[in-house]
Specification:
Two copies of one chain form a homodimer. Chain A is α/β, with parallel strands linked by helices. Chain A is built from 16 helices and 17 strands.
């Protein structure tokens, strides 16, 4: 029996509103209930479910106690058509999802020989010792359909509890995401019938969600909806905002064309802040692709970001084509000796100053022999602030083929250390990106995190 | 009637197990269910509730629909003694928490004149226009106790639904945190009495969760539990594993002493991999503190990590005392010119080789003038691999006051680009950490992610 066939009961009538099928998310783990871990899986799953036209109507979190999991599985299964379960599939004693699902479904656990072999093979391949508790992961509820996990040891599985199709996935976000996208989504999509929603996405940097929402008010005015249902969604992944338009219904190819029209209007309104128009392209990908198109190379000179700007761009595969390196000079002597910042600049203006970042940018460009170089120096906090240069003060300079091109000075308020580093790495990368994609544009970079009055 | 007096019913008997009182968290908002926002309030509240000895037993998330909120309020109130509610207190139409609470409690909404004046005064103070929908925030359930919000416009409130004390707080994290800490926590603490659980934590690097679990089997053998309930918990934050012991019950100071004994046994069994024994200390903190104790400085020479090692150590506040900088040399010419790697090494052995990382480490140590330097060069993937040097191949070298100290060669399998970077940054930092804390120890660093046969 294939997974798809087994899911027949979820199939909706062609063209029936997909909302006939309801979904919920149940996350499992004492570590969640103790607040040791922020649950990002529910939001991620809900975003994906929404895109599939199966919006989540409730999230719940259960402890590792068997009775609690069973009770919550039963009540959720009684309310919805498809339940996403995350966590509790590990090899340890407190991982009880399979057992709880079996109990809630009224079936026994049974050893899946094929899974046991797969797990053993996986351990052998990486020469890790296989222990008895790892074998536990091959015991699944009777009748379960296995959801393959090729990047972890815990297989996922799917069973029915009453009329509800339950998908159990690992709590590790990357394993869960991969499992959903590779095995769960296509099934939900094809089995829940009707029309796939058309989805378009626009990713922006430098705006808050409320600003994006404001800028997209009345987006549909002047667009013929052709009988389609159009919804706009946002997702904040600091410091990015992803806006998406989901279009369903309509006749013939209407949904796709309506989605295109909305995406076009969206991109136009947000123009100065857009870096990608699809789900797969990250900010680093966009920057690397742009540099490659222009046949240009870049280097960084970092202080308060500590290496995060280099880390950011090298998250894109193939970045070695355009990224030559980064000089992380955390001490003044390194700034002087490795980047050639004049000692009188450090003495008179200090390391967090326009003159310092300008000397750093020039120094990095020369030393790496890159076309562009961006320097970052600031006070990431929590210590090191002063009345004149409070925590969050960051200077940026961009040097290019024609010499110094920009200086930006910001005070990122109410951001703790990590946020100051993160937004600073983005602003640095954005300076190069915009210099190439919109030469001459004097955007108000990073203003969203800085108060009025600073420039 | 004071808020504390009103909460009398929650008071536990002195020395009664704190689990007599149970708590839950209910978050409200369509934006959560659409996945637009990751809920961090539940984890934060749960952490605080746990510290107060009132661990949360369930989280739930409801939509903005009145009926859904009422239903979830009623069922949660039927299960627990105190319910934390977050969100839905704003001025807009889809903020329906007060109305839902009134309905669930069977009381009417009534205008709180004092709150209305307070809201008007706040608007006047910041020169914002006061509109009718803002007045909505002054309508609270009959009998509600107001929880003051001095950094936002939405007041919180507390009412009883049946036997359950419900606290409604704003969804904005900083407003919620302040309201909980200033108004809710002290009440819960003094009124619910009882004994706080004792919590001890050990953080390790270089072991998988299943390995840690295996190594801690029978941990309590030989420890007198003195009537306490002891549970062991794990949390994986790649590539770290955090193991914690939670002890409740027992007489007198038993729980604290039992927790100490367990923590000691835990640390002993995991000795070679432990870097911290409390919740607050991160890996970067541990490394920085160790370097500071030894009066030593460090620098890095990075290739495939792209700056992540520098980023990692600079996540610790105060890292500037011991971290001089990192030379991210992504191109061969940068390795040659900025780190002095001989061109014949690059030609003959290649950039991913023992000779290259050794030259890089020596070069970084000289150029930064640091006591220690670690170099990292590898194939992060997905491209760039070969039969001889597959994706995941990484070389590390540590240079110190006495010259070259270590070379490590690993092939990190089944890790995509981000994981290879992440574990490589940790291995690099670990090399310095162990050289200082266990000189001479020749640990099998990073083996957990690499197969046998590589060294």
């Amino acid at each position: 029996m294939t997974l798809r066939a087994a899911l027949g009961s979820l199939r909706a009538m062609p063209n029936a509103p997909s909302t006939a099928a309801t979904t919920e998310v149940l996350t499992i783990g004492d570590e969640l209930l103790r607040g040791e871990l922020v649950d990002s899986n529910s939001a991620w799953l809900a975003g994906r479910l929404g895109e599939l036209g199966l919006p989540a109507s409730r999230f719940s979190t259960a402890s590792d106690e068997l009775g609690d999991i069973v009770e919550q599985l039963r009540s959720a299964a009684g309310r919805c058509s498809a339940l996403m379960v995350s966590g509790g599939l590990g090899p340890t004693e407190d991982d009880r999802t399979a057992q709880a699902v079996a109990q809630a479904a009224g079936v026994e656990l049974e050893l899946h020989e094929a899974q046991l072999e797969a797990i053993k093979a996986r351990f052998a391949a990486v020469s890790l010792p296989f222990t008895d508790n790892n074998a536990k992961q091959a015991w699944l509820p009777h009748g379960a359909l296995v959801l393959d996990n090729d990047i972890g040891t815990a297989p996922g599985f799917s069973v029915k509890i009453g009329g509800c199709r339950v998908f159990c996935m690992p709590g590790v976000p990357r394993e869960l995401m991969r499992m959903f996208d590779r095995h769960v989504a296509s099934v939900l999509e094809s089995e829940l019938g009707g029309q796939r929603p058309e989805l378009r996405r626009v990713k922006v940097f430098g705006l808050a969600e409320a600003q994006v929402d404001h800028m997209l008010r009345g987006l549909g005015d002047g667009i013929d909806g052709r009988g389609c249902t159009v919804t706009i969604h946002y997702r904040a992944t600091f410091p990015e905002i992803h806006a998406s338009v989901v279009v369903r219904g309509g006749e013939g190819g209407a949904a796709g064309e309506v989605a295109d029209a909305y995406a076009e209007a969206m991109a136009e309104r947000l123009a100065g802040n857009v870096f990608a128009r699809d789900a797969a392209t990250s900010f680093a990908d966009a920057l690397v692709a742009t540099l490659r198109e222009h046949g240009a190379t870049v280097a960084f000179a970092e202080s308060c970001t500590g290496g995060r700007t280099g880390d950011l761009i090298t998250n894109a595969a193939g970045s070695s084509d355009v990224f030559l390196g980064s000089l992380v000079t955390y001490s003044n002597s390194a700034k002087e000796q490795l980047l050639g910042v004049p000692s009188e600049v450090l003495q008179r203006d200090g390391a967090v100053s326009q003159r310092c970042v300008e000397a750093m940018a020039r120094g990095a460009r020369e030393r790496f022999g890159s076309d562009y170089a961006v320097a970052i120096s600031g006070v990431a906090g929590p210590g090191g602030g002063s009345a004149e240069k409070p925590v969050g003060t960051v200077h940026f300079a961009l040097a290019g083929p024609d010499g110094l091109m920009r200086h930006v000075h910001r005070v990122f308020r109410y951001g703790e250390r990590d946020r100051v580093k993160q937004v600073s790495a983005y602003v640095a990368a954005w300076l190069v990106y915009r210099a190439l994609t919109a030469p001459g544009a004097d955007d108000v970079i990073g203003k969203r995190w800085a108060p009025r009055g600073t420039r």
